[in-house]
Design a protein that fits this description.
- Keywords: Cell membrane, Membrane, Transmembrane, Transmembrane helix, Transport.
- The chain is an all-alpha fold and 294 residues long.
- The protein has a domain at 3-204: ABC transporter involved in vitamin B12 uptake, BtuC (Orthogonal Bundle).
- Helix content is 80%, strand content 3%.
- The chain has twelve helices and two strands, in the order αααααββααααααα.
- The chain has helices spanning 3-27, 31-52, 58-80, 85-108, 115-120, 141-159, 161-169, 171-176, 181-220, 226-251, 255-273, 279-293, and strands spanning 130-133, 137-140.
- Strands 1-2 form a two-stranded antiparallel sheet.
- α1 (3-27) runs antiparallel to α10 (226-251) and α3 (58-80) packs antiparallel against α4.
- The longest helix is centred in the C-terminal third of the chain and has 40 residues, at 181-220.
- The termini are far apart.
């Protein structure tokens, strides 16, 4: 496989996994949690590095997942004690991200871990960091990790699909039916953290946030069915990844930044052209309402 194809495949895997998770984030009205976790995992990554002095390994994943879960727990804890949820999210993630940045500046030194790497990622270096896989040969480490995470996300979503559906639309009903709402919440936060961590090193925080929120928000404009929304969100994530790559090649600019920009283009198209909730459909509907009144 060529250099460009590995980048496209990796970015598409990010779009798929983030798109699937993002659909549930949007329905649960937790879009800003994506931003919070994608930034706060930096602290977990830095702490894991300071403990082990190794930039790769399972310890980085564990540290970042713990930081993501800690973010969710702290946000919920503050919210339960009277702090508005959006304020709780803002306080927790900015504080944790700031601590991570300070630790990078003061403790990490010359290691390849800096704020630019954290925000924008290093997707152009992915094809060079490979691992031998039986039957497949040399495969980029990030691509393999994202493939495993995608399969895990699909399995968990499929296994508890009815529970996700009920807890997303009506948590009170879910609790009355005996569904462990709190446990499902933290399981979902674990999936968000895992997906964020898997994509973080490759594409950075900016693209992770864009891929978690914007394709799902675009899909929400096209359908009212959860299963269709998940599929559309994943598809929009892949379209954004591929389109963004060619925009970056055309303009000779940041690949991750261009992919994030492409998600905005997809949302703009959906906002204007969606037959159900788009601007064009609303403009067509208003004259009909006026005629009925006459």
């Amino acid at each position: 496989m060529t250099y460009a194809m590995w980048i496209l495949l990796t970015a598409s895997l990010v779009g798929l996994s983030c798109g699937i998770i993002g659909a549930l984030l949007i329905l649960r009205k937790m879009a800003m949690m994506a931003d919070a976790i994608s930034h706060s995992v930096l602290l977990g990554i830095v702490v894991a590095y300071l403990i082990t002095r190794e930039l790769s390994g399972i310890h980085m994943l564990i540290g970042a997942v713990i930081a993501g879960l800690l973010t969710a727990v702290l946000v919920q804890w503050f919210h339960a004690r009277g702090v508005q949820q959006d304020a709780s999210i803002g306080v927790v993630f900015t504080t944790m991200f700031a601590i991570g940045v300070v630790l990078i500046a003061t403790q990490v030194g010359n290691a390849h871990l800096d704020t630019k790497h954290a925000l924008m990622g290093e997707i152009t270096f992915i094809p060079w960091d490979t691992i031998a896989v039986p039957g497949l040969g040399e495969v980029p480490r990030a691509t393999l990790t994202l493939s495993i995470v995608l399969l895990l996300v699909i399995a968990v979503i499929a296994l508890f699909y009815k529970e996700w559906k009920i807890t997303s639309f009506d948590p009170a009903l879910a609790a009355s039916l005996g569904i462990p709402v709190v446990l499902m919440h933290y399981l979902f936060m674990s999936m968000v953290s895992l997906t964020t961590v898997a994509a973080f090193d490759a594409v950075g925080a900016i693209m992770v946030v864009a891929m978690l929120i914007t394709p799902a928000a675009s899909a929400y404009l096209w359908t009212d069915r959860l299963s269709v929304m998940i599929g559309l969100s994943a598809m929009f994530g892949v379209i954004s990844a591929i389109t963004g790559y060619y925009i970056a090649v055309w303009l000779d600019t940041s690949i991750s930044g261009s992919m994030a920009f492409a998600t905005g283009l997809v949302f703009l198209f959906s906002f204007l052209c969606s037959p159900r909730h788009g601007l064009a459909s609303r403009l067509r509907y208003r004259p009909n309402m006026s005629e009925q009144k006459l």
